Amino acid sequence: MEQPDRRTHARYRLNLPLHYTVLHRRKTVAAGTGWTVDISAAGACFIADGLVQRGDTVELVVDWPAMLDGQVPLELATFGEVVWVKANHVGLWFLRQGLKKRPGAPA
Questions:
Q1: Hey, is 91 helix, strand or coil?
Q2: What is the pLDDT of residues 36-86, one digit of tens each?
């Protein structure tokens, strides 16, 4: 029997490119690229191209599909804790997140 979904935030299936950095005591210990599977207000599931472990602290930056004023590319910048890993799929709980201009975007 399938378990009911107990999440309090709706998940949105989005397949977007990303890059991530695994941090330990504010120092980079690993980095990689991947794709989102789904995103909510509280977290994300993503596919990682490298080793990420439960309990890791991760900075995740997603190329956001919308543009500011229809012209300025955005990215979703997040910081959080890995709460589960299944093969190369990673569940990240956001501690902080926000949209910002992509580096090199026009002012």
A1: strand
A2: 999 999 999 999 999 999 999 999 999 999 999 999 999 999 999 999 999
Class of domain 12-101: mainly beta
Contacts of 58 (CB under 8 A, 6+ apart): 20, 21, 22, 23, 52, 79, 80, 81, 82, 90, 92
Q: Where are the domains of the chain?
A: 12-101
Mean pLDDT for 12-22 is 96
In eight-state DSSP terms, residue 19 is E
Of the candidates 82, 103, 66, 70, the residue with the CA atom closest to the CA atom of residue 34: 82
Q: What gap in Å lies between CA 6 and CA 15, rounded to an integer?
A: 23
